[in-house]
Amino acid sequence: MLICSNDGAECKGRLSTGGGGSAVKNSTLKLSAECQSAGYSGTLIPYKCDLSNEEEILSMFSAIKTLHKGVDVCINNAGLAHNEPLLSGKTDGWRNMIDVNVLALSICTREAYKSMKERNVDDGHIININSMGGHRVVPSADEHFYCATKYAVTALTEGIRQELREANTHIRATCISPGIVETEFAFRHHNSDPEKAAAVYESMKCLKAEDIASAVTFVLSAPAHVQIGDVQMRPVEQVS
To answer: What Gene3D superfamilies does this protein's entry cite (predicted)?
Structure first.
């Protein structure tokens, strides 16, 4: 999860990242150093948080409030998949997907909205990094439950948009739904078969993390009166 807040004239914004363990924290610190070396403004701050644990999520938001005043933009980008088919999968795998892909996203959204309202932020943004799996069911048994959680994200984003309108606020909610992106995702999904994971990325020219970042920038740069509901994107060579 990514949290942004504008809180200093000398710095365009602060970005806190939550989720994962020490490996994620170390990679975030490395990215922070790279951004500073490249001359980007702002600060990238890692915060270790188990997104399947509500208490840790609430603790993270409390720390953000103390250190950075609050949240202006919340980007829910944590997600995972397990090879657990509907007819033979393990309940623990299903539960973990729901906890991270659905419940953590909902809790972070709720807490981000609270932060915005407490500070009278009326131009905030909640961006859910969804998946093309939230718009069509992949014809593969080990993807079906994952797709169900991503369909939930599609529904949640529209529900958030409707509730924001009922609250008469100009805070916006958006989904970004990518197809295959070359990250560590496939290797974690197929952790017992690294060759299968590698084949996913070797089969086509995949989307890159930079492509998703560009979509986020596009959404955040939209005029204040424009509500972008969903950005669907996939590699040109991807079939499904």
So the answer is: NAD(P)-binding Rossmann-like Domain (3.40.50.720)
